[in-house]
Amino acid sequence: MRIELEKRPNVSALFSILSPFIAFALTIVFGGIMFALLGKNPAAALYSFFVEPLSEVWSLHELAIKAAPLILIGVGLSVCFRSNNWNIGAEGQFIMGAIAGSILPVVFYDWQSPLVLPLMLVLGMIGGAIFAAIPAFLKAHMNTNEILTSLMLVYVAQLFLDWLVRGPWRNPQGMNFPETRTFGADAILPEMLVSGRTHWGFAFAIIAALLVWFMMRYTLRGFEITVLGQSERAGRFAGFSSRRMIWFSMLFSGALAGLAGISEVSGAIQQLRPVISPGYGFTAIIVAFLGRLNPLGIIAAGLVLALTYLGGEAAQLSIGVSDKVTRVFQGLLLFFVLSCDTLIHYRIRVVRERFAALKTDEAH
Amino acid sequence: MKKLLLALATTTAVLGFASAASAQEKAKICFVYVGSKTDGGWTQAHDIGRQQVEKELGDKVETQFLENVPEGPDAERAIERLARSGCGLVFTTSFGFMDATIKIAQKFPDVKFEHATGYKTAPNVATYNSRFYEGRYIQGQIAAKMSQKGVAGYIASFPIPEVVMGINSFVIGARSVNPDFKIKVVWANTWFDPGKEADAAKALIDQGVDVLTQHTDTTAPMQVAAERGIKAFGQASDMIAAGPQTQLTAIVDTWGAYYVKRTQAFIDGKWETTSSWDGLKDGILTMAPYTNMPDDVKAMAEATEAKIKSGELKPFTGPLNKQDGTAWLKEGEASDDATLLGMNFYVEGVDDKLPQ
Q: CA-nearest residue of chain B to A266?
């Protein structure tokens, strides 16, 4: 006996909409069982995971801070993935954007002007885009696999940052510790509201999501992305160039990842360190798919994923579960979302051995 | 309506007072960990310290911790969360939490903070560190006695003052026994990576070292040393289980003594900001039993340990030259702490170029 996934001829519209909610409900049920097995009160655990972080103003701000880079990168990646280009190196583009944007406050720290911040943001986008141009060039002109090249460049970016903060960019007043100068007041992305720490990076994320949503829905470019992504051949007949699309989608997602990088550094960290991202570039891939590559969905997915991080911390304190349980819980959520989506598009078919043997005979 | 409001206000005030009073009975002491509390090294040593606070101060305290907190914005949030959840005293146990600790401390002037291994203090932020280098001096002496080739391997993490200080102290100790002693250094660029650390250990052994020491946190180098039949020193925790025939001794971090002292001061209302840098004599680090060595080496190590504890011996005492041969400390002159805490040069006898 064998189990097969078979594509459904018709996808149910109702279940497409319901699927995330079903997945969420399943996560709650199985998460509750897990907490009960650990000897914790499931209701209290779920409360600290999903409600506690939303019940206080400061915590909402933290949610926005955590979600901002995930959404910004995820939106850029959605364009890439939709056009069938697989940029896995957003983490590296995030770092290179942060480095490029930090040139002003670290190297030219004397220069103080209201122009510093906008220039930093532009440089950040350019830095991310240039770094994404490497896999784009390799794919467009040498037909290399962008999954591998973009992924491997992540390590290059990480080590380059590491070298900078231990070497040429090290803070001369920093007791030899590996970090740059802290940024001057002109180089810090300000807070959006007086009530908390949320910086403008969150606004960039939302604006980017809305713009991409508009582009995908109402512009020729959006149509081109979708067509080329679904069938390159059909796209060619329509006069679209897949090579130009490689360049466009990679540079676009690289620029947004770079913007996320410089926003994070300028708004939240305010200096460069050996490590500036706990894997935002990779988590954003999950966010992009969790949001079904739809920019508005990605906003929701980014917020949900950020919520599980914050909720995990709250649960560590209020009910004393380990950090590992948080990871398992996040894994449950992703598993159910993806499997619900899969089962909408495919149905499970059990193939009996006898029947399979018969088929093999026929083939002979 | 006014009366109702007044009644409400009074009730909340009373309730608030009551909760403040009960909070005073039980001090809430909190910890932020960079790693997992069962990492077998750095973080576990801090967590053992936390458990000691609970054990010794009993129901006067309640402790809480957050583990696997990445440095950066996440650390800021984690520390703020603890400050908001009613922690009175918060220990942040990684160098990378320094700026986050200072930032949150400004926001919560009534909460006390203690940051491990940093150099920034504030009226409500103290720093604490351990003179690990005292243990490394003893290790250097043992290495010089035990090594037949006169070369030890040193697996270093990052070229920060803490680590450079350790290398220098080890070499000074070794050369007090054997003036020709040499070390080979490999920079693993990690605190915690069993694979990289094992590779570094193999590379060093292939280059002919016959004693191994490490400033990284896993037991992998100890295991490699055991496989290859050379001796080694443990780090942060007693690693004797990983090398029963291999470990000579280990520097064991015993933060508990400090945590208990500071928590007691906090409960008594006598907490003040300090920059504390305790050593062997204060019990903030201890040497694991001296094993796998002849009795005379053991006797020497014990004598040195006693001299360091009594203050008779300070590892960084002249005459000492810098690596390039220029004079650093005159005969009998001891280095001041500020120089040690910012140390970015090697002493004479280190056969390595400091990554700059």
A: B73
